[in-house]
Amino acid sequence: MSKFSVPTRENVSAENQAIFDKLQGALGFVPNLYATIAYSDHALGKYLAFQNARTTLNNKEKEAVNLVVSEVNGCKYCQSAHTVIGKMNGFTDEDVLELRGGKSNNAKLDTLVKLAKDITENKGRVAETNLNAFYNAGYTNANLVDLVMQISDKIAMNYLHNLTQIPIDFPVAEPLKAIPA
Questions:
Q1: What is this structure's pTM?
Q2: I need a surface site. Which of 36, 37, 67, 109 has the fewest CB within 10 A?
Q3: Radius of gyration of the chain (CA)
Q4: Average pLDDT of the chain?
């Protein structure tokens, strides 16, 4: 059983309190998983800088990656959070479910999601067909590096939630198998 509870503003360092205040102002709340990162005096600031760094991937592409990686890693928290964020970025409920399942009706996005799933499942040892399809869709070496960085961002959060099991503070995403096709 996890020894983690969600820390409050009063339970974290002054540096993290300032970050909590910024998150509260920007989002209206401090997501539980971010608050959990604040057990470390430095990790939350470091993580947010990494998460918000510039990338060649657009917001829809990043959310597509977040959804499929979170599904592969079985992270209910991130599936739930990125279902909400995916919809904020223009995905429909059907799109979200397809992306979590590792596919998309958008041909270019489909190659990205299939490669992200393959990278995650196989720890970077991917099928050549998936890598070739990625490049044939117009993605570049820079996009591949940024894809791996996006996957690593999501794996860190997936693992943290899978270890801590802190409460989900987003509408909980339904399991794929429970959703009619």
A1: 0.94
A2: 109
A3: 17
A4: 96
| Cβ–Cβ under 8 Å, residues 100 and 70 | yes
- The distance of Cα 145 from the centroid of its chain, to the nearest Å, equals 16
Burial (Cβ within 10 Å: 0-12, 13-18, ≥19) of residue 142: exposed
**CA 37 vs CA 5, 106, 131, 149: distances in Å:** 11, 35, 33, 19
Domain ranges (residues) in the chain: 9-51, 59-163
At residue 147's C-alpha, the angle toward residues 142 and 152, to 5°, is: 130
* Spatial distance between the Cα atoms of 159 and 155, rounded to a whole number of angstroms: 6
Place of tokens 């996890």: 2
| Helix spans in the chain (H) | 14-27, 32-37, 43-51, 59-72, 76-88, 93-100, 107-122, 128-136, 141-164
Does the pLDDT at position 177 exceed 80? Answer: no
Write out pLDDT tens, residues 104-136.
999 999 999 999 999 999 999 999 999 999 999
Collapsing DSSP to helix, strand or coil, 85 comes out as helix
**Spelled out in words, what is the top-level CATH class assigned to the domain 9-51?**
mainly alpha
> For the ranges 9-13, 67-71, 89-93, 172-176, which has the lowest average pLDDT?
172-176
